[in-house]
Every structure is written in structure tokens, then in C-alpha cells.
Design goal:
about 55 residues; alpha+beta; Arc Repressor Mutant, subunit A
């Protein structure tokens, strides 16, 4: 798994829509960073986020 995933990739892994992925990031439930206008999530953050859902 790559070190960083796009929010779209995270949505596909979690089997949720892009809108739901962005909502989780905005609420702080999934920690993300922004690089050049795109949101990215550390791959470790995906498993951490699953534990919180």
C-alpha cells in the first residue's frame, strides 16, 4: 500500500462515497493533509479511521 492515499482511494477502500470521505475528513474523524489542492491521507490513517467508525 502506498504511503499516502487520495481521498478517492480511501473512499474505495472503505466502500463509501467521495462525499462521505470528505465529510469524515472535515469532521476530523479521518486525519488528512492537503498538498497542492488535493487531499491525502496517510495509509496508516485509514486503519486508524476504521477503528473509530
Amino acid at each position: 500500500m502506498p504511503r499516502f492515499l487520495t481521498l478517492t482511494d480511501v473512499g474505495e477502500i472503505l466502500n463509501i462515497s467521495s462525499a462521505q470521505t470528505y465529510a469524515l475528513v472535515r469532521s476530523g474523524e479521518l486525519p488528512a493533509i492537503q498538498i497542492g489542492g488535493r487531499g491525502y491521507l496517510k495509509s496508516e490513517g485509514v486503519s486508524e479511521g476504521l477503528l473509530c467508525l
